[in-house]
Amino acid sequence: MVLPQSPSDGGADDPSSELGAVASRPVLSDLTVIVPTVGRDVLSRAAISIARGSRWPSRMIVVDQSGGDLVEGLVERLTSAGIRIDRVPAPRRGVAAARNRGIEQVRTRWFVISDDDHDVSLPWLERMHHHLESGRAAIITGMVAPAAPGVPSSTMDEKPAVHTRPMLTRDPLFAGNMGTSMDVISLVGPFDEADALEGAEDNEWGYRAMRLGVPIVYAPDAKVIHLDWRDASGIEATYRRYARAQGAFYGKHLRRGDPFIALRAARDVVRGPWLLGRGVVSRNHELTMLGRAESSGILPGILSGIRIRDPSRRGGSRRS
Q1: Measured between alpha carbons, how far is 95 from 103 in angstroms, rounded to an integer?
Q2: Antiparallel, parallel or unpaired: β 27-37 and 216-226
Q3: What is the residue extent of each domain of the chain?
Q4: d(Cα 45, Cα 117) in Å, to the nearest integer?
Q5: pTM attached to this predicted model
Q6: Taking the CA of residue 258 as centre, how many other CA atoms within 13 Å lie in the half-sphere pointing to its CB?
Q7: Which helix or strand (DSSP H or E) is residue 47 part of?
Q8: 27-54: per-residue pLDDT in tens?
Q9: Is the dihedral of CA 10, 13, 15, 18 positive or negative?
Q10: Which of 11, 18, 234, 249 has its CA 20 to 30 A from that of 5?
C-alpha cells in the first residue's frame, strides 16, 4: 500500500483522516520510540507520522504531561491501528523529566526519541535503527528541518559527522531526534531535571556523554520536520529560555572547575552583544532576537547553574 507524502516528506497533511489508511508495518523488535508531550495539538500529526513510517517500533511510549484527554484518545486510535503503545502519565513537567520517565520504561536494547512537534520522515525509524546497529555504543542524532523560516532548534546540515569531543562553537545533539542504547544510559546517566536547565538539558547531557567517550553521530538521512506552532512572541520567548538554560549548563560545570566550559561561557558572553549589534545594523529581526536573548540570558543563567544542587543529593532519576 502506497501512502501519500506531504511536500516535506514528513508525514500526514490531515492527521485525522490519515490514521485509518495506515497498514501494518514490519516491527523493529529491539527498538522503542519515546514521545514526550504536553498535549499540543500537533501531537496527533507527530504520532501519526511515526505510524505511517516504513517500520514500526516494538513499542511506542507516550509520556503525558498534559493532564488532559487528548493523549488518551490518540493512544486508543493508534492501538486500534495495531501499534503497541503505552501512555505514561508524568505529573512533573519539563522535557528532561518526560524523557527520563520514558527511558525508565524501555525494555529493548535501543530507544529513539521524537518530540511532540516533530513530523518524522517515512524512513526515519528504519534509518535510525540502521545507524544504531552500525554505531553500537554511540548516540545518533538526525536532521531537524524547520517547517518555516525562524523555527528554533533546527539543523539543515546535509553532511554526516561523528563528534568525539565537545566543540567550542555549538552542541551537536538534538534530543528531539535522537537514539541510543540502554548501555549508554547506564554509563552517562539520565537527563538532569533541574528547572534551570530546561531548554539546554540535551546540550548538558551530550556534553557529559562525550566527556565519557561516547561519540555523537549526526545522521542527516534520519530526518524530522520541526512543526511551526509558535507566534513571533513565542519564538522570542523560546530564544530567551534557551539562552538562560545554556548559561545554567555552563554554570553547573563551572562550579566543578571545568576549564573548557569556562572558555565556552566567555565566548557566549561576548557573542550576545555582537549578535545584537549585527542584527540591529543589518535589520535582521531573527539575529536581533537571538542577540538580545543571549545578552540578557547567559550571565543570569550561569548564576542559576552554579546554584544547581549537587546531583548526588537529589537522588533517584533526577541525578545527573
Answers
A1: 12
A2: unpaired
A3: 15-226, 232-310
A4: 8
A5: 0.89
A6: 20
A7: helix 43-51
A8: 999 999 999 998 888 888 999 999 999 9
A9: negative
A10: 234
